[in-house]
Amino acid sequence: MATSPAANIRPRVVVIGAGFGGIYAAKRLGKLPVDVTVVDRKNHHTFQPLLYQVALAVLSPGEIAQPIRSILRDNANTEVVMDEVIGIDAHARRVHLKSGAELLYDYLILGTGSTHSYFGKDEWCKLAPGLKSIEDATEIRRRVLLAFELAERQTLETGTHPPLNFVVIGGGPTGVELAGAISDIARVYMTRDFRHIDPSMAKVLILEGAPSILTAYPKDLQQKAVEQLAKLGVRVRTGARVTDVQPGYVMVGDERIESVCTLWAAGVQASPLGRMLAESLGMPSCLDRRGCVQVDEHLNPPNHPEIFVIGDLAHVEENRHQIPGTAQPAIQMGRYAADRVGLLAKDPAAAARQKPFHYFDKGDMATIGRKAAVARIAWPFHANWSGFVAWFIWLTVHIFFLIGLRSRLAVFRQWAYTYIRKQDGVRLIVGSQSLPGWDALATPPASSEDEATMAARS
Ligand SMILES: Cc1cc2nc3c(=O)[nH]c(=O)nc-3n(C[C@H](O)[C@H](O)[C@H](O)COP(=O)(O)OP(=O)(O)OC[C@H]3O[C@@H](n4cnc5c(N)ncnc54)[C@H](O)[C@@H]3O)c2cc1C
Fold first, then answer.
1. Sign of the dihedral through C-alpha 436, 442, 444, 446
2. 114: CA distance to ligand 1 center in Å?
3. Cα 271 to ligand 1 centroid, rounded to whole Å
4. Structural contact between residues 112 and 16, judged by C-beta atoms closer than 8 angstroms
5. Which of 62, 139, 347, 397 gets the highest tally of CB atoms within 10 A of its CB?
6. What's the chain's Rg over C-alpha atoms?
7. 63 in catalytic set
8. What percent of the chain has pLDDT over 70?
């Protein structure tokens, strides 16, 4: 099947990826005289900033993810296709889908985001899952909750259990959020639920290779973050480069650190679609070292005004600094690309006068735990805040940016319940009941007496 723009009078726009960039582009395109196809390999848009709350059982997946076709249902000019893009032919203006179908376009908006990077050690992925999707979040939830359940069962059976050490690799915003939330769940929400173990004895450790955590934040906020993590009982080790990840432990050089559950928040790389596009354009050099596509001031790769790369996949610089891979830049790029498509399609002269893309920086926030966060406010005034005030702003902003009234109400109700009653809502273990490395940790090494007995028996 090939859907041809020639058959249509109106320009056809294909939007690949319904993340923050793609969904805001598609919403804007809904008001323009174009025909739009949105392609995503998932049927839902995920609000990634709240994924960690699904991973740590505060929210359920349905509260932070909405079907793409529901979000765009009022756009009469838009169709949604659930499929994976596996190839781009920039010269034929054609997109290849995994199902075998092809889509032709007049304009292409590419916003397929980023993915985990294990720095070439992809085998670590099974032992230390990262957090990028709903599937990742429910897998992390399974592992964290299972560690407590196995400890309770083990104590019931043998009177003891291995230390509940959780290791988070990476001290960026996601690592800090995960570590703080594990501490919250252990020290606040589950304290009264077990009979044989004390969940608050769990230890959470962040291992960060750089000299500080939250490296994109001002120094004073980095320090505040370390202090707030310490209050939550989270230990931070900076300058600690993980050299191996194994079931039940990680290695930092020669040091072995026991871990019942290891999580990965250390590396990010661009979606492979960036490379596919660059190869199709015959310009592999337009990729940066993370695989992001370097685009011009109109978000186009060189010599292709009909192609826009937006969000995490785009490498955009302002004042010689790369715009960060966060939600606001993706949203703003999505809107800009849609506006530019509208101008190019309707009035190329006006398009020639359009101002270049400019990122309107409102600031950054990272939550650390219950009543703890850091916020760099850049608009409507400049300030660096931490603690309860930053946390409260974080809650408000995230409610505001969630897509859909139903999600906003549901998340508001769930947070009120969780933070006031100190009980979290979605503590479900779904799937396998085995935890990598648990059996080895739970079986104490045989004593020399045992070994002698076994040797005598054999
Ligand atoms: C755990 C976590 C926490 C975060 N917290 C914050 C935060 O607090 N504040 C903040 O501003 N930012 C945060 N971010 C970053 C923010 O979510 C991203 O910057 C933003 O989602 C990027 O938007 P995007 O549109 O570029 O890509 P994404 O939102 O990642 O969307 C990409 C879309 O493309 C689809 N896709 C990928 N490949 C294909 C393919 N081959 N075919 C079809 N579809 C495809 C995916 O299914 C997805 O729907 C966080 C990210 C994570 C992972």
1. negative
2. 6
3. 10
4. yes
5. 139
6. 24
7. no
8. 95
Ligand 1 neighbour 328 (Cβ under 6 A): yes
* 39 Cβ inside 6 Å of ligand 1: yes
Give the ligand 1 atom nearest the CA of 83.
Answer: 43
Protein residue closest via CA to atom 7 of ligand 1: 49
Q: Among the residues of 402-447, which ranges form H helices?
A: 405-421, 438-442
pTM: 0.94
Is residue 87 within 8 Å of residue 96, measured between CB atoms?
A: yes
102 - beta bridge partners?
2, 96
Residue 37 CB less than 6 A away from ligand 1: no
Ligand 1 centroid–CA 24 distance in Å is: 13
Q: How far apart are CA 151 and CA 199, in angstroms?
A: 9
Q: How many CB atoms lie within 10 A of CB 219?
A: 10
Q: Compute the distance between CA of residue 428 and CA of residue 411 in angstroms, rounded to an integer.
A: 18
Report whether residue 175 contacts ligand 1, using a CB cutoff of 6 Å: no
Contact 103, 18 (CB under 8 A): no
Per-residue model confidence as pLDDT tens digits over 357-414: 999 999 999 999 989 999 999 999 999 999 999 999 999 999 999 988 888 999 998 8
Which two three-digit tokens encode residue 369?
């735990």
Q: Which two tokens stand for residue 19?
A: 């993340």
Q: What is the pLDDT of residues 314-352, one digit of tens each?
A: 999 999 999 999 999 999 999 999 999 999 999 999 999
> Which tens digits make up the pLDDT trace of 230-286?
999 999 999 999 999 999 999 999 999 999 999 999 989 999 999 999 999 999 999
Q: Give per-residue pLDDT as tens, 25-61.
A: 999 999 999 999 999 999 999 999 999 999 999 999 9
Q: Is 330 in the pocket of ligand 1 (CB under 6 A)?
A: yes
**Which residues are registered as beta bridge partners of 309?**
110
Question: Tokens at residue 24, please?
Answer: 């805001």
Is it the case that residue 417 has pLDDT exceeding 60? yes
Closest Cα partner for 237 from 161, 323, 153, 167?
167
Nearest to 238, CA basis, from 276, 211, 273: 211
Query: How far does Cα 34 stand from its chain's mean position?
Result: 31
Record the tokens describing residue 162, joined without a space. 């291995």
| Ligand 1 closest atom vs CA 20 | 25
Q: Which residue has the tokens 């993590």?
A: 229
Contact 57, 178 (CB under 8 A): no
**What's the 231 CA to ligand 1 centre distance in angstroms?**
31
Q: How far is the C-alpha of 426 from the C-alpha of 56, rounded, in Å?
A: 8
pLDDT at 458: 41
DSSP result, 129-142? ---SSHHHHHHHHH
Tokens of 165: 């050490």
